[in-house]
Backbone:
């Protein structure tokens, strides 16, 4: 029977993870900004068909970024626990 | 021992270094009793110079730069998530306004003017569908009328009709719209003016609807 030990990420590894998250979240936010301006333009022009899909996609993007932040907090918590031991 | 018998190395404030007061940034211990950083822990200073070349203050109060980098990236990530939430709130605001617009129903029918009250090439300001929406009625020919919302679609300045140039002119940023169609022809506006649907009943002109357009 083989077993594996999951060690918490080192600080360098966590810094790399944060950098990757930053790049990803920046791209998501640029897309959200574009979506907001496009939705506003369409809605002011009387096109209401894009309003709810736009809100849904933007909420999904927010859930994604919040999920990444929660994951990062979990990484930090694991590191703190290890330091406490 | 000092002259007055006190130990000069004794902590000034016993609360310093206690749990919850470990230091403002968490990168340097605030307690005088806590072990200080080694000079080698000035890992990579901002000027990339070695530890020995650093100024005295930085040698006395070394900073764990990788930790500092990690914390600032993490805080920036939190700020970006907040920005993402703000954009989503903007989308929600549009959805609420859309719901309000649908709830308000069809605009009312409003008598704008008698045909003879507006000369050919002349214009008349009226408010439609409510008091907050100034509109312009323009008589192009003897039997041809057009009406548009007076708010420029760029930043809502009031546009001015210029029949001799065949355009509406926005003095704020020199935007121009076609007088007959309301389509933007110059300047920063991207969307056409909101068109007011007119109806001729006998010798009078009535506003019966609002037509918003993207092109």
Residues:
């Amino acid at each position: 029977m083989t077993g594996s030990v999951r060690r918490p990420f080192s600080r360098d590894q966590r810094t790399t993870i944060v950098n990757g998250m930053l790049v990803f979240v920046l791209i998501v936010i640029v897309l959200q900004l574009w979506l907001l301006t496009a939705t506003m333009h369409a809605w002011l022009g009387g096109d209401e068909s894009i309003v709810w899909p736009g809100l849904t996609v933007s909420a999904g993007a927010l859930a994604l970024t919040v999920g990444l932040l929660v994951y990062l907090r979990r990484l930090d918590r694991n590191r703190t626990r290890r330091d406490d031991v | 021992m000092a002259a007055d018998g006190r130990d000069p190395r004794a902590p000034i404030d016993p609360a310093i270094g206690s749990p919850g007061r470990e230091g403002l940034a968490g990168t340097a211990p605030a307690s005088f009793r806590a072990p200080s950083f080694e000079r080698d822990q000035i890992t990579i200073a901002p000027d990339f110079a070695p530890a020995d070349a650093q100024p005295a203050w930085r040698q006395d109060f070394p900073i764990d730069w990788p930790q500092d980098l990690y914390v600032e990236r993490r805080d920036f990530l939190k700020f970006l998530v907040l920005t993402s939430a703000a954009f989503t709130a903007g989308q929600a605001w549009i959805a609420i306004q859309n719901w309000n617009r649908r709830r308000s129903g069809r605009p009312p029918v409003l008598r704008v003017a008698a045909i003879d009250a507006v000369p050919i090439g002349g214009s008349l300001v009226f408010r439609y569908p409510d008091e907050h929406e100034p509109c312009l009625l323009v008589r192009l020919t003897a039997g041809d009328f057009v009406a548009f919302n007076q708010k420029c679609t760029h930043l809502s300045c009031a546009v001015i009709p210029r029949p001799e140039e065949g355009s509406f002119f926005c003095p704020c940023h020199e935007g121009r719209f076609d007088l007959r169609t309301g389509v933007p022809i110059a300047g920063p506006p991207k969307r056409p003016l909101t068109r007011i649907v007119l109806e001729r009943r006998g010798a009078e002109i009535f506003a019966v609807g609002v037509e918003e357009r993207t092109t």
